[in-house]
Amino acid sequence: MKKLFVVSALALAAFSAQAKDIVDTAVGAGNFKTLAAALQAAGLVDTLKGKGPFTVFAPTDAAFAKIPKADLDALLADKAKLTAVLTYHVVAGKVMAKDVKAGKVKTVQGSELTVATAGGVMVDNAKVTSTDIVADNGVIHVIDTVVIPK
């Protein structure tokens, strides 16, 4: 009985350690520092730590580096525009890679992303480079470019 309790306690501890929201999961990955800073600047951290579920197309630090520094600094300083750009990367619900279909997808921002699936998945002009990073309140799909609402 004692062994069973120890094993159960270890399993519970492992499960608890794995249960992270989208923000904690992205921060833990290490290549989303700019995204994390942008979420903080826009006041969206608490939203993405919420119940969800959310599907986030998360641009890496390299994706943000494609934006000229002056433009990125201006974006980070404009909370309304930053919020619009970041929420354009979020879709309500949990959409796993196997469920992705080509077409238009409504974002939390209100506009639609265009998803293409021929020759790999594209979201607007961004290539999906990694999929199905599961968090306890949704899923992250990594993209190589910051997408901007039209």
Structure description:
- The chain is α+β, with helices and mostly antiparallel strands.
- Helix content is 41%, strand content 24%.
- The chain has helices at 2-18, 22-29, 33-42, 45-48, 61-65, 69-77, 79-87; strands at 54-59, 90-92, 103-106, 112-116, 122-123, 126-135, 138-143.
- Strands 2-1-7-6-5-4-3 form a seven-stranded mixed β-sheet.
- The protein is globular.
- Residues 1-17 have low confidence and may be disordered.
Question: What order do the helices and strands come in, and which of them pair?
Answer:
Blueprint: H1 2-18, H2 22-29, H3 33-42, H4 45-48, E1 54-59, H5 61-65, H6 69-77, H7 79-87, E2 90-92, E3 103-106, E4 112-116, E5 122-123, E6 126-135, E7 138-143
Parallel strand pairs: 1-7
Antiparallel strand pairs: 1-2, 3-4, 4-5, 5-6, 6-7
What labels would you give this structure?
single chain; 150 residues; alpha+beta; seven-stranded mixed beta sheet; 24% strand; disordered N terminus
